[in-house]
């Protein structure tokens, strides 16, 4: 432990600085909480049940309480952000497995997003519950439904629709000429990323933009009022279930094959997660790294909508930074130096792109990279969202994306579980059949031996009439010695199997035990 601390003094100093910052933020939070409790005692004094409770109309104090509640929620969110930064520094000092890092980062990021929900609830309570057309400016009437969805109560109708289940895998949406049949007559579908044909049962329809963006009416706020429908064929790809999992968890993206081509007709695959390159695809010898820069295969004129593909690309970059994935800075630098999408092609609203990228407080050089992506591929319209509305919309999109990722992972695990059980059953059946075949072969060989020994015994019986007693005694002694030898051999085999000094069969188990114990 001491050696590790000596090797990384700068990182230890950063952790200490973050902890100092956390103590300061916590002190501010407690100060706000004290003021809030004092005001609440003045506005809502305690009375006995039998006492007459007067009606207190102190709107100024009530307004101040609402403001204090919002500030406390903001400080709580700031605390969650500082804790997240402390954990990033600590995990950088003491390395862990990729799965452990991702699990911890997802937990801390979800805590930060939940704290943001508390901020929005306090803000909504401060402004008031009532919403009508006069609340929004006249220029926002086209987006009235979108903003109404933003202010919808957590328990109001539409909450379930916002985080509705994904339709991935429920229906295969493929063109008529995308079907084929093998020699057995089984329907086959071509995976648009790998280019191979697979049975229909192994194929999925993977949405590019998650369904909740459509069901929550947030599409126009992201892509503008004239964007194509999220329910159309341009928002889905036909993929093998393993590739659909990687695509749905934003470890794979699709990019234009030629960044100068407009409109985009040819697309290629890009691996965002470096850890994915060493994995094998569908139990084959093919590595996922083979899909890097591989062109997608389309059976007809339908192509992914450019705006939707750009959203998927942006969310892959945001999640790589949010989860502090290994190599995320290299990925950002790569697409900063070589922009993958055509310049001057406007895909998303600028304010929403900035809100998504900066929701977890990006700073420094990251802002220059973000600005290059926004200026090249974002469009600007008259401001239709307030500051807190942008943050809340970005938070809801991030929450919805994370829930869609979890559902994609659960779907993949649910499908993989029966496959594993079938493989184990097939293995056990093969072992049982091999044991049965060995028993049958041994029985057959014993029968053959008994049949072959019969004539020899008869000939020996005929010749023994002319032999002397000495010869018969000699034969008996040789037979007895051979039996003794066979018994000795068998005893040696048994002793070798039961020999306590032979640890060849238990060495791996003991090593695993002590490894787990340590």
From TrEMBL:
Region: Disordered, residue numbers: 409-518
Top-rank taxon: Eukaryota
Bias type Acidic residues, positions: 419-470, 481-496
Biased composition range(s): Polar residues: 505-518
Protein name (Swiss-Prot/TrEMBL): HNH nuclease domain-containing protein
Gene source species: Clonostachys byssicola
């Amino acid at each position: 432990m001491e050696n590790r601390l000596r090797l990384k003094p700068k990182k230890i100093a950063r952790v200490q600085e973050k902890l100092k910052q956390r103590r300061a933020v916590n002190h501010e939070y407690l100060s706000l909480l004290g003021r809030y409790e004092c005001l609440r005692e003045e506005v809502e004094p305690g009375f006995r049940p039998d006492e007459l409770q007067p009606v207190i109309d102190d709107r100024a104090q009530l307004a101040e309480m609402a403001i204090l509640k919002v500030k406390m929620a903001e400080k709580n969110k700031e605390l969650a952000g500082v804790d997240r930064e402390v954990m990033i520094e600590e995990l950088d000092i003491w390395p862990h497995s990729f799965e452990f890092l991702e699990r911890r980062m997802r937990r801390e990021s979800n805590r930060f997003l939940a704290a943001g929900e508390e901020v929005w609830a306090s803000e909504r309570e401060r402004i008031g519950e009532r919403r009508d057309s006069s609340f929004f400016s006249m220029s926002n009437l086209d987006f009235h439904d979108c903003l109404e969805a933003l202010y919808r109560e957590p328990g109001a109708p539409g909450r379930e629709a916002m985080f509705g289940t994904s339709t991935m895998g429920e229906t295969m949406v493929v063109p008529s000429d995308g079907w084929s049949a093998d020699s057995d007559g089984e329907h086959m579908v071509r995976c648009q990323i790998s280019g191979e044909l697979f049975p229909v049962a192994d194929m999925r329809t993977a949405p590019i933009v998650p369904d909740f963006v459509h069901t929550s009416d947030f599409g126009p706020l992201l892509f503008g009022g004239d964007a194509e429908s999220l329910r159309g064929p341009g928002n889905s790809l036909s993929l093998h279930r393993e590739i659909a999992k990687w695509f749905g968890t934003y470890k794979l993206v699709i990019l234009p094959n030629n960044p100068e081509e407009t409109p985009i007709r040819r697309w290629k695959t890009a691996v965002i997660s470096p850890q994915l390159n060493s994995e094998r695809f569908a139990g084959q010898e093919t590595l996922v790294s083979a899909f890097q820069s591989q062109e997608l295969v389309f059976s007809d004129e339908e192509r992914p909508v450019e705006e939707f593909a750009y959203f998927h690309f942006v969310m892959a970059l945001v999640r790589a930074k949010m989860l502090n994935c290994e190599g995320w800075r290299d990925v950002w630098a790569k697409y900063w130096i070589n922009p993958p999408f055509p310049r001057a092609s406007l895909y998303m609203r600028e304010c929403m792109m900035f809100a998504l990228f900066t929701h977890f407080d990006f700073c420094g050089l990251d802002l220059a990279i973000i600005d290059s992506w926004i200026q090249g591929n974002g469009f600007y319209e008259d401001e239709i969202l307030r500051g807190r509305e942008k943050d809340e919309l970005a938070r809801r999109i991030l929450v919805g994306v994370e829930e869609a990722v979890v559902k994609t992972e659960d779907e993949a695990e649910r499908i993989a579980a029966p496959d594993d059980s079938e493989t184990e059953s097939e293995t056990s059946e093969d072992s049982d059949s091999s044991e049965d075949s060995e028993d049958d072969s041994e029985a057959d060989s014993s029968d053959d031996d008994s049949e072959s020994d019969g004539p020899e015994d008869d000939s020996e019986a005929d010749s023994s009439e002319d032999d002397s007693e000495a010869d018969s005694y000699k034969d008996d002694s040789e037979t007895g010695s051979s039996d003794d030898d066979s018994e000795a051999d068998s005893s040696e085999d048994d002793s070798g199997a039961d020999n306590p000094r032979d640890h060849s069969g238990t060495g791996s188990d003991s090593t695993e035990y002590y490894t787990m114990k340590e």
